[in-house]
Amino acid sequence: PDEAKVSAYECGLNPILGQTRSTFQVHFFVVALLFLIFDLEILLLFPIGVTLYQVSSFGFSIAIVFFIVLTIGFVLEIGSGAISLNNLEVLKKSKE
């Protein structure tokens, strides 16, 4: 093989046993999805915050229900350990 194919990537990882490709951790994909979901939450709640005095009580209650559902989801994600980056047990489970 060519020397460039077995050299370290830009991130500095050394190849493992001559392989330059490594398996992708599903745990990091879950964190990316959670970031996307909560980023969209902020995007959807921003217009309500801007027009808070113009929204009726029904619109405000819908926004509160939306926020409560996402907060419950966030608490469940923390409880399941999906967000814990330093937990070695979660990383071991994702490798299996």
Structure description:
The chain has helices spanning 26-50, 57-80, 88-95. The chain is mainly α and 96 residues long. Helix 1 runs antiparallel to helix 2. The longest helix is centred in the middle third of the chain and has 25 residues, at 26-50. The model has no long low-confidence stretch (mean pLDDT 72). It is found in: Membrane. GO terms for molecular function: NADH dehydrogenase (ubiquinone) activity.
**Cα radius of gyration in angstroms:** 21 Å
Average pLDDT number: 72
Q: What level of helicity do the residues show?
A: 55-70%
Query: Distance between termini?
Result: 31 Å
The largest sheet is: none
The tally of strands reads: 0
- Helix and strand sequence: HHH
Instruction: Please work out how many helical segments DSSP would assign.
Output: 3
How much β-strand is present in the residues? under 5%
Q: What class, by secondary structure content?
A: mainly alpha
- Outline, from the CA principal axes? elongated
- Total individual domains: 1
Query: Which consecutive residue ranges, at least 5 long each, have pLDDT under 50?
Result: none
Family: Belongs to the complex I subunit 3 family.
Main location: membrane
Catalytic activity: a ubiquinone + NADH + 5 H(+)(in) = a ubiquinol + NAD(+) + 4 H(+)(out)
Protein name: NADH-ubiquinone oxidoreductase chain 3
